[in-house]
From TrEMBL:
It comes from the Eukaryota. Belongs to the SAPS family. This is Protein phosphatase 6, regulatory subunit 2b. It comes from Silurus meridionalis (Southern catfish). GO terms for molecular function: protein phosphatase binding; protein phosphatase regulator activity. Residues 412-421 have a biased composition (Basic and acidic residues).
Length: 556
């Protein structure tokens, strides 16, 4: 039997291309033009790769559309033009990447006065980024011939698309030899120093935020690239970022002169990225199983740059920027903790995780641990703060005490070389003996930090039973005043044990409860009897998964 109907359909794009006077915008009006381009429609590609067509496509993405068009359709042509230019069709990439006149037309977008249209900037960045990835040598050669290219990009740093373009230059250039040449070029152009200069009180918020994010991404991208290459030269951008003078310049901008929240937060985010020790692509089931090749060592020059400015962070925690009161579900919060102080706490936790004795001594001399503990209890409902305090205690308890080179025993005569551990042990005893912390046992409202406090207490107990500094911490606790030791032991034996037991209770559903949940599920989603019979087994598995998941959540 033969079909009587011809099911072959000709696309509207093909019909348009049959006309000699077809225009580019007529093609852009068709919904399937992008799909036809990706499908390598030769007639369409022949039309699009004409010099006049490519010039018009580029013009659409770098010039403002007419203002008389309906708002939702104003950028339709620009968007479609950008999609065609970046759809990874080699004929288009080869033509644009190999023609300096087309590249010059595209480049003129950077030469405009700020501010740039953010949507057009994203089209421009995406198009140039595609050329950097697909026609690397030609595009890099073109950009390096443009004197002042980096200065122009930085001039528009208030637009996030410019940050994306910089990161493309750092991450999308292959092979590695060419990439290293690009990094040397960017370093000679003082890219890092220019971005650092944006992080100061006089700079607008958008530029500061984009500069900070760019620096953080450069740090992570550079470390990942170095880690992926067996033998490679040092990354010049990362080396510049890790210089002591670079870190000091950043902190000087943040703290010397007028102090602004956005400046301190943006700068601290860069410091946190510099202090990251875990490789971004590593996932470990057991945190204690990490090996040295899974960690980055923090360059000592970074710590030397931070150390003189720790007193400024202490002053920030004691006298934070003025903030307006905040309405919360528990009432009016007269003194919000604030994002600025939270970033200061994050930095303290990161510094403790570096395991640098000199830095730890400085933190202890500033009494930073007790200050953080005071804030922990003062801001009862700020769980972001409580998490950072938990990280601090975890880092301190995980420290290996100093050992004598002869007998390899803890050097108790020089306890102050690791005073954080001593301070935290005393601090924990004070925390767990404070009567207000046990209010949940007397029927009052449970404090917002109690979950974190329980985890901290369990960490201390586990450190006494086993851990890097087991004997050291045990001796410190035994050296506490008798009253403190008694209250601590009572807390561990009674309150903490009861809390752990309550959190470890397994949930067990009866058959009747499972049937009720199943019936509710069927009622809600409308299974008929046959469908229900076919899916009963899978539903029972789902209930089992839900039950085990809930048990895990409660244990956590």
């Amino acid at each position: 039997m033969f079909w009587k109907f011809d099911l072959h359909t000709v696309s509207q794009v093909e019909k348009l291309l049959e006309r000699d006077d077809v225009t580019l915008k007529e093609l852009l009006d068709e919904d399937d033009v992008l799909q036809e381009c990706k499908a390598q429609n030769q007639r369409l590609l022949l039309f699009l790769t004409q010099d006049s067509s490519l010039q018009e496509l580029i013009s659409l993405i770098i010039h403002e559309p007419p203002s008389d068009r309906e708002e939702k359709l104003r950028y339709k042509y620009a968007n479609t033009a950008c999609e065609l230019l970046t759809c990874d069709v080699s004929a288009i990439n080869d033509k644009v990447g190999g023609d300096d006149s087309l590249l010059n037309t595209l480049y003129t977008f950077l030469e405009q006065d700020p501010p740039l249209n953010p949507l057009l900037a994203s089209f421009f960045s995406k198009t140039f980024g595609n050329l950097i990835a697909r026609k690397t040598e030609q595009t890099i050669s073109f950009l390096r011939k443009k004197e002042g290219f980096i200065a122009l990009v930085l001039k528009h740093m208030d637009t996030s698309a410019m940050m994306d373009l910089l990161l493309r230059l750092i991450s999308c250039v292959e092979p590695s030899g060419l990439r290293h040449d690009v990094l040397i070029w960017l370093d000679k152009e003082k890219l890092i120093q220019s971005l650092i200069e944006f992080i100061q009180p006089q700079t607008d918020n958008e530029r500061q935020a984009n500069a900070s994010q760019a620096l953080c991404d450069i740090i992570r991208l550079s470390r990942d690239q170095v880690g992926q290459q067996e033998a490679s030269d040092a990354d010049p951008l990362l080396a510049t970022l890790e210089l002591q003078q670079t870190v000091e310049c950043l902190l000087k901008n943040m703290f010397e002169g007028e102090k602004r929240d956005i400046c301190i937060v943006s700068g601290t985010q860069v410091l946190l990225a510099l202090l990251e020790t875990r490789k971004s692509g590593v996932e470990l089931i057991d945190p204690g199983s990490q090996t040295l090749d899974q960690l980055y060592s923090v360059n000592n020059s970074i710590l030397l740059g931070i150390e003189p400015y720790l007193k400024h962070y202490r002053h920030l925690l004691l006298e934070p920027p003025t903030m307006c009161s905040m309405l919360t579900s528990l009432g009016v919060l007269e003194e919000p903790f604030g994002n600025t102080r939270l970033h200061a706490c994050r930095l303290m936790a990161a510094l403790l995780h570096t395991r640098a004795p000199r830095m730890h001594r400085e933190l202890c001399q500033l009494d930073m641990i007790n200050l953080l503990l005071d804030l922990f209890f003062k801001f009862t409902w700020n769980n972001f703060l409580h998490v950072q305090m938990e990280h601090c205690v975890s880092a301190i308890l995980d420290q290996t005490p100093p050992c004598d080179p002869v007998d390899d025993e803890p050097d108790l005569e020089h306890t102050h070389s690791h005073p954080d551990t001593a301070h935290t042990s005393y601090g924990d005893a004070e925390m767990f003996s404070h009567q207000d912390l046990l209010s949940h046992g007397r029927g009052g409202m449970r404090k917002g930090y109690m979950g974190h406090l329980t985890r901290i207490a369990n960490a201390v107990v586990q450190s006494v039973e086993k851990g890097a500094a087991q004997g050291f911490i045990t001796q410190l606790i035994n050296g506490l005043p008798e009253d403190y030791r008694g209250r601590w032991q009572k807390f561990v034996d009674e309150t903490l044990a009861e809390t752990n037991k309550r959190n470890a209770v397994d949930l067990v559903f009866s058959d009747y409860q499972i049937q009720q949940m199943t019936a509710n599920f069927v009622d809600q989603f409308g299974f008929n009897d046959d469908e229900f019979g076919n899916t009963m087994e899978s539903m029972q598995r789902s209930v089992g998964w839900a039950e085990s998941g809930l048990i895990w959540w409660m244990k956590e």
